[in-house]
Amino acid sequence: MLEKLDMKKKLSKSAYNEVMDVLGERLGLVQRLAREAKKPIIIVFEGWRGARRSAIINTMMQQMDARGFDVYSTVRMNEEEHKQPFFTFFWQHLPALGNIAVYHRSWYYLKTANEVNCKEGNANCCQNISYDHINTFEKMLTDDNYIILKYFLHLSPEQQKENIAKNAKTLGKAWREVSPAIDESDKYEEYLERYEKMLEATDKVNAPWHLIAADDRRSAEIEIITSIVETVEKAIKTPVTAPTAVIRPNTKYDVLGKINAYQELTKEEDYKEPAPSLQRR
Q1: What is the pTM of this model?
Q2: Is the residue at 19 inside a domain?
Q3: Domain range holding 166?
Q4: Residue 273: pLDDT band with limits 50, 70, 90
Q5: Of 278, 242, 72, which is closest to residue 144 (Cα–Cα)?
Q6: DSSP for 63-124, written as a single string
Q7: Is residue 90 predicted with pLDDT exceeding 90?
Q8: For residue 193, what is the domain's CATH number?
């Protein structure tokens, strides 16, 4: 899937500013429209270390009303949250109707981190789950009229190394490179295969992946925000549908009718004699 991306596309600063002037206003508008339509939105950002997710999220935040969205990260989950059942953190942080939840790393990252930690014998390894569990979780949400937007930011190995080196020298970002939860350095091909499997297993009609060529940040930002605006605009125009009811066959169950409520045991023979042997069990 990722090999089809055009990693060489770039956008000049002037072209970026020209497009963002209009796109930023549209992003703010669709946030207000989603609030009025009571459409809850979940935006997931996954991808390579050094893919500049924070910068993209910051650009989005500048265009939106901060009262209507929250940003979460599984990287910042505490020890107690890691010990809870896998999806507990995410159930507890679902957006209210009309609000937006943005995930800088999500359940996908948590699953990958768990697998890596278990493989390396790390004591922080918690329970593992399958991609089928994730698909079911997302299906429950979309069936309940949540909008799920998933973005995977893809980097070439050369650009990843360049970004990581730049972060290590940048004030305020160097701490991120000291002890990353998942260290992809020198393991690019191994993680590429892992991510390809993840994308193929979880690219569903109700919650498809949007693959973003992120070597050029400006181009990636425009592509992501355009996708968010167009998807939300379309979803708002779609009537809210109730979950499909499960129609069961018209069968009568008579379990209690099979019980003999008048059955009795005599005290001496039927109760006292078998009681000791049954109590020993």
Answers
A1: 0.82
A2: yes
A3: 2-237
A4: low
A5: 242
A6: HS-GGGEEEE-GGG--HHHHHS-TTHHHHHTPPPTT-EEEEES-HHHHHHHHHHHHHTT-TT
A7: yes
A8: 3.40.50.300
